[in-house]
Amino acid sequence: MKNKNDYLERILTARVYEVARETPLELAANLSSRIRNRLFLKREDMQEVFSFKLRGAYNKMVRLSAAALERGVVTASAGNHAQGVALAAQRLGCRALIVMPVTTPQIKMQAVEARGATVVIHGDSYDEAYAHALKLAKEGAMTFVHPYDDPDIIAGQGTIGMEILRQHSGPVHAIFAPVGGGGLVSGIAAYVKRLYPQVKVIGVEPTDAGSLHHSLRAGRRIRLPQVGLFADGVAVKQVGAEAFRLCRELLDEVILVDTDAICAAIKDVFEDTRSILEPSGALSVAGAKLYVKREKLRDRSLVAVTSGANMNFDRLRHISERAELGEQREAVMAVTIPEEPGSFRKFCTMLGTRSITEFNYRYADPQEAHVFVAVSVRNRDEATKLILSLEDSGLHTVDLTDNEMAKLHVRHLVGGRAHQVEHELLYRFEFPDRPGALMKFLDSIGHRWNISLFHYRNHGADYGRVLVGMEVPPGEKTEFRAFLKQTGNRYWDESDNPAYRLFLG
Questions:
Q1: Rounded distance, CA 70 to CA 125, Å?
Q2: Domain carrying residue 213
Q3: Residue 121 is part of a domain; what is its CATH number?
């Protein structure tokens, strides 16, 4: 029997190539030129199930006894691991029961069912699906195939590290891998660090799903109270115990990236490969870019694992909107100009030949007008210089590029002043977006106060985001704040937000 700690042997003897292919290691030429380093993409999005997950799933299942295979397997997954288990079950001729949370993209559910597995929808999160899967496994005497916290799963994913070192002839400075439960990055680190300890292995997580990042800082596994759902493939509240043990010993660091950076990375990979990664699949590219910028790195060889491409088509709208912001190639501004002949033309002249990506104008009063404008720029420095030039010309300018409310809502609501509204308070809410979620939210806010403004956009499996204005008399503010806490949703008071004051208040 193999020693649990001898991952080199486990990875070298992993049985993955009966279902998986050795994916290419491709130079991202355009992106490499921009960041002045050689960035190679380990194209796990090119597997048969468009994700690396079949490696670990098959390596685990092919080692089960004939009796265990006869009884069947159970797992819980937001999609990619589910497809790996379904494919493995199909090849091995066993029954597979897959428990998926309601937030799972439809494309992943359909792919699992197409391979003959039975899908059970349960819970709002992976954790709820996981608990239900364990219950079903016990009731049916079936084998539970863990998505990440199992030595055979970790070893299967570790074969990616083996391939990277074999495919790249020269020295590699760093390998970047996305982190959900930690199976992929710990498997890669277990192999790479054993042979080439000088090669950095760096995990990448979303800022709102940083379970490994916070666990490493605390020195113990931390369970997050909630995680962001945009990168649904890594929306895990707690990293696996075995994965954490390995990462604590072997990993160089974990980098956190935001949604805009992930969207920009999806666009970067598309421009180089014409392939569209899912958000979790682009995490490593976003992390590599951030690392290069932070370390001022030049002329090094870097590898980013593009881990999956199971993208819901309806999410592309949101991603395309945010990609330019993530790359800092769009500046969003509120500019106040005199309400007089010629001022509008003067303002447009100052923008020069830059491409205007959005422009909203609303008459404010006889003296001045407010313009909401988005402009394409080469980088953040150019945006800063543009804002300073507008200010120097006497045009008061507010930079809204990092203003979340302005980017999500106000750009679609400019011109919505209602002078007859009294005592208006403005709040932004977030809740997991799933069928019926909006009606549930509306029920939670009730009918106690008059709603004077409401804006909602559906972003697929991301959070539901709502901007709400309510008329709350001064004497009822204490009662209103108590009500906010009872809704159970995340919320932000935007009543003093400059974007609101300029365009809506």
A1: 29
A2: 7-52+158-323
A3: 3.40.50.1100
Residues 6+ apart with CB under 8 A from 54: 16, 19, 20, 47, 48, 83, 84, 87, 88
Q: How far apart are CA 421 and CA 159, in angstroms?
A: 62
> Which residues lie closer than 8 Å to 181 by C-beta, 6 or more apart?
147, 148, 149, 236, 239, 240, 243
166 domain-assigned: yes
Q: Is 76 left (phi over 0), alpha (psi -120 to 50) or beta?
A: beta
Block residue for tokens 């004497």: 475
Do 370 and 286 lie in one domain? The reply is no
pTM of the model: 0.77
Give the residue from 202, 284, 281 showing the smallest Cα distance to 247.
202
Q: Which helix (H) or strand (E) holds 60?
A: helix 54-61
User: CA 438, CA 466: separation in Å to the nearest integer?
Assistant: 9
Same domain, 219 and 318: yes
Residue identified by tokens 């005199």 is 338
The 10s digit of each residue's pLDDT in 83-121 is: 999 999 999 999 999 999 887 777 778 889 999 999 999
Pairing of strands 301-306, 174-178: parallel
Which are the catalytic amino acids? 53, 307
For residue 280, give both structure tokens: 């979790």
- For residues 326 and 300, what is the distance between their CA atoms, to the nearest angstrom? 23
Task: Give burial (CB, 10 Å; 0-12/13-18/19+) of 127.
Answer: middle
pLDDT exceeds cutoff 50 at 451: yes
Q: What is the pLDDT of residue 1?
A: 40
> Residue 181 in contact with residue 148, Cβ under 8 Å?
yes
**The residue type at 213:** H
Confidence of residue 160 (pLDDT cuts 50, 70, 90): very high
The enclosing domain of 353 has a CATH number of 3.30.70.260
| Residue 281, in any domain of the structure | yes
DSSP 381-447: HHHHHHHHHHHHTT-EEEE-TT-HHHHHTGGGTTT---TT--SEEEEEEEEE--TTHHHHHHHHH-S
Decide: residue 358, CB within 10 A, 0-12 exposed, 13-18 middle, 19+ buried. Answer: middle
Model pLDDT, residue 414: 64
CA 231, CA 67: separation in Å to the nearest integer?
A: 37
Which of 144, 169, 185 is the last residue in one of the domains? 144
